[in-house]
Amino acid sequence: MRPPSLLSLTIASALAHITDIVDLTDIPDFLLIELFLGTLRAGKLTEKVLKVFIATGNPHILSFIESLGIKIALTPILPTLKDDEVDIVITALKPDLGFLEEWRPVFSRFHLIIVKDPDLLDADLKIPPGFPSLDVYNQSDMESLVGKKALSLLQFTGFSARYFGYLVSRRRYIIFIDADCIPVRDDLGHPMDVVNQHLVNLTTPATPFFFNTLYDPYIKGSDFVRGYPFSLRCGVDCAVSCGLWLNTPDCDASVLKSGKRIERIADAVITVPKGTMFALSGVNVAFNRELIGPALFSGLVLAGEGKVRHKTMEDIWCGMCVKTVCDHLGYGVKSGAPYVQRCVDGATEQESPECTMVAANLLEVAVPFFQSIRLPRTAISTEACMLEIVKLVREKLGHADSSFARAADSMEEWVGVWRSLHAKL
Amino acid sequence: MRPPSLLSLTIASALAHITDIVDLTDIPDFLLIELFLGTLRAGKLTEKVLKVFIATGNPHILSFIESLGIKIALTPILPTLKDDEVDIVITALKPDLGFLEEWRPVFSRFHLIIVKDPDLLDADLKIPPGFPSLDVYNQSDMESLVGKKALSLLQFTGFSARYFGYLVSRRRYIIFIDADCIPVRDDLGHPMDVVNQHLVNLTTPATPFFFNTLYDPYIKGSDFVRGYPFSLRCGVDCAVSCGLWLNTPDCDASVLKSGKRIERIADAVITVPKGTMFALSGVNVAFNRELIGPALFSGLVLAGEGKVRHKTMEDIWCGMCVKTVCDHLGYGVKSGAPYVQRCVDGATEQESPECTMVAANLLEVAVPFFQSIRLPRTAISTEACMLEIVKLVREKLGHADSSFARAADSMEEWVGVWRSLHAKL
User: Fold this and answer.
1) Does one domain contain both B61 and B87?
2) Chain B residues touching A364 at Cβ < 8 A
3) Looking at the structure, do residues B63 and B88 belong to the same domain, yes or no?
4) pLDDT over 60 (residue B78)
5) Is B256 in contact with B203 (CB distance < 8 Å)?
6) Are B32 and B177 in the same domain?
7) What is the pLDDT of residue B350?
8) Which residue of A168, B50, B158, B221 is 20 to 30 Å from B215, comparing CA positions?
9) Within a domain: residue A321?
10) CB contact residues (below 8 A), chain A span 253-282, against chain B
């Protein structure tokens, strides 16, 4: 019998204390591989030990782990975003954009896209100073970019003007805030950074397949609860982050009249589960344009709507399209924090039950439609998904109300315009 | 031409001011009906006006509204619960129940069911005074009620002892809190009333068919958001309310070792959407026993588990059974507030990756199973649903691991015991 080699003694000694070792990066490759195999044989490859091996970045170890079919729940490292990966889109429904004063500390280092509602005609926009990177688009820009004919279908007026902002953006992430919102301030009076919080939501995975009772497990202070399947802990890409707001809730006119106010922040972010529909509000929303860009469009605009949030349907329809596309392509939609402070006083606005009734009746048809449709497997891009939705809307909703047929036409045109504009790049 | 009658003039005058009228209860029936028909004809029947008519409680008006197919989103009025409709179930895993001291202001007016873990043998329980209505059950009670043979299958030991408490309860609502939890205290030092908050969750409807971005619309301060379909605003009965806790999260051993703590209350209650699974934790949970009683059982007990929360699978399995039954029968499951304060320090407990791995591997099989099964339409009671799950577990999971087959046997026995005990009443 030969005496034990130095190598085997070293391995045996390391193996005996393997659970105490926190760093293996400086170990020569051949020792590392021996040690890994030894750990496996000894049945000591716990999650903690595995992480230390993975941290070495050794390609042999990594491919070996892969070949063993071991799935690892990685704690995501937030990518260091550059400021030029973000566009902030604002629609000017009134000429005075004084509300941006409040946003200066949060927004000024990012590029702003301000889209002027065509209905403002020649009125000059009043934009506070201090935003070094800013582009303003008006009706003539719309006409020259998409043409008068397409424009008449796309209806970039009122709140829908923002869709033009999405169209001209060239950055990865888009954040949209209504012009009646200002930052929530913390106890020290500092504005809360809505941009950063949206980016945390968008750059960490979403969990649409299983509900986590501690909400978003990737947010600081939370985690996956016991019983959350390990195979689902890697999550999926998050495409949309829907924020909330204090003060006037985004409810129907009758609730607004009741004077109800949202006064407390619920410190939670939730992935809306796969297969579950929700009502997206356009007040405070962010998305990954590269992932899901063209899905953020509506086309469903009712007569007379577009200037008062609680009278619009466009964002609700847009949300159901986006959710359908995300569910199909395997992306996630988060809802919850960050909050903004809404300044509009709903109670002073005229109650319009007729308008609510028209929208409510359309929803009674549209919601079951979106809950039931399944897109074909061949639709593997956002554009293809949108065109499939167009087809299904024409087929199953077109006869129910002419608004649906118009929405389908508008969505089809939108995808065409999006494609041609982005093909040029 | 005849002059207008006094009646017609009265109606016309009331109609002209119908939107200003806030109370019609004192109007004679025939006038009320004339006025209602006139309001309809004049197109003035807004939601607000409708509510005033409904508030009269006039049966002709109500049946007329029903025949018109008008759906109304009623703000639920919390039923005045009697204290004797609530059972608080506590399992004694250790003889000293001193933690109940802290709960006295919250629990003392309710009936307590204390189930002594059979493993405690002859040890005397130390129960603080001040709980006038209290029953203690021990192993001999278990044996005399269900028999030794059934008991060996049902395994009412460790955390599973609570299921015996559910079995002997005769009250509508059951609230269960782990013995390592005390009340969260507000800024003034008052204990937060976990019982009342659970009852609010259980007595207001749940909304499993559409996600409300402002969370539970029935909780004070919230409401349905714009775009939430009116036809779904009546919600469904809520069967289960899963609470949360501060301090040590209910995570896997590895997370507990990291020292992560839950330090803030997220002021939200969410209906887990239909079709979405979640990991129920047994730490702090309440349910409507009359609605869903026998679904709260597990039967999946792993070797050596039962005394340490983060090593148990029973509550996770129980949660997936309950969710499957609720989804099938059209009941809701809520998760979120109320919180309790957990005192256990997970970091001091021994890490047991092997135990975690066994549980994790079982979950990788069990979760897809529960996500995919559909119960037959003929299963219209909780008992029938549980027996269908038993059948499916045997058929599809029995071969994967013997724990599943044992769980099926145990669940079948449980339903039998539940039926025979409740048939006697």
Assistant:
1) no
2) 229-231
3) no
4) no
5) no
6) no
7) 54
8) B50
9) yes
10) 254-255, 257, 260, 262-268, 270, 272-281
pTM to 2 decimal places: 0.81
Q: A59-67 vs A29-41: helix axis angle to the nearest 10?
A: 30
Domain that residue B12 falls in: 6-67
Instruction: Report CB contact under 8 Å: B249, A48.
Output: no
Q: The tokens of A171 are what?
A: 């950055």
Same domain, B215 and B116: yes
Predicted ipTM of the assembly: 0.80
Domain contains A266: yes
List, for residues B209-248, the tens digit of each pLDDT value: 999 999 999 988 888 998 999 899 999 999 999 999 998 8
What six digits make up the tokens of B248?
């040590």
In this complex, do B214 and A262 lie within 8 Å of one another by their Cβ atoms?
Answer: yes
Q: Is B81 exposed, middle or buried (0-12, 13-18, 19+ CB in 10 A)?
A: middle
Check which CATH number belongs to the domain holding B383 and give it: 3.90.550
- Choose the closest CB to B268 out of A251, A268, A309: A268
Of the three residues A43, A67, A91, the one that is the final residue of a domain is A67
Q: Quick one: which of B264, B105, B93, B85 has its CA closest to B183?
A: B105
What's the domain count of chain A? 2
Residue A381, in any domain of the structure: yes
List, for residues A46-62, the tens digit of each pLDDT value. 878 888 888 888 878 88
Q: What is the pLDDT of residue A77?
A: 46
Cβ–Cβ below 8 Å for B275 and A273: yes
Q: How many Cβ pairs within 8 Å bridge chains A and B? A: 175
Mark which of B67, B98, B117 sits at the end of a domain: B67
The distance of Cα B416 from the centroid of its chain, to the nearest Å, equals: 23
Judgement on whether residues B61 and B88 belong to the same structural domain of the protein: no
* Position B109 in a domain: yes
